[in-house]
Amino acid sequence: MGKPERSIGALLRVAAGKLAVAEAAALRAQGVTAAEATLLRELHAAGAVAPSVLADRMGMTRGAVTKLVDRLKAKQLLVRAKGRGDGRMQTIALTGSGARLVPELDAVAVRVEGAVFGKLDAAGRAGLAKGLKRVVDD
User: Fold this and answer.
1) pLDDT tens-digit series, residues 33-48
2) What SS3 class is residue 36?
3) Which of 12, 66, 122, 129 has the fewest C-beta atoms lying within 10 Å of its C-beta?
């Protein structure tokens, strides 16, 4: 008796789980979590910004972003600075170490994706990406 067919949702959850486990292990080797890596990538793309901007971009609460910022500051990957004009306003910026780490994190993501989705040929990967983008960009 063969395996029962899984729904698209079930397949996505299993694939996402495999991706998350593999990514978490690879990122641990770089000294960061998946959430920290996401924040570093966002900050790399945005430049120095307020924590509230990062929270909005990442779909996280300001409190959650503050905790990530605190951890990354302790790892010396980013710094807090007073905003221009309003001394109460803070901006967050990457340190040199943080900026150098982001391309390494991007390379990790490519390697992990290749390992997890390596059974798909180029056309299969492109089709999957195209379909998921249509769903996500809804």
Assistant:
1) 999 999 999 999 998 8
2) helix
3) 122
Q: In this structure, what token pair is assigned to residue 114? A: 């290749």
pLDDT of residue 83: 65
58 and 40 in contact (C-beta within 8 Å)? no
CA dihedral 42, 43, 49, 54 (to 10 degrees): 40
Q: Give pTM, 2 decimals.
A: 0.82
Nearest 10 degrees: Cα torsion 58, 61, 83, 68:
-70
DSSP states of 78-137 as a string?
EEEEEPSS-TT-EEEEE-HHHHHHHHHHHHHHHHHHHHHSTTS-HHHHHHHHHHHHHHHT
Residue labelled with tokens 């609460």: 61
Residue located via tokens 């300001």: 62
Phi first, then psi: what are they for 120, rounded to 5°? -90, 140
Q: What is the pLDDT of residue 37?
A: 96
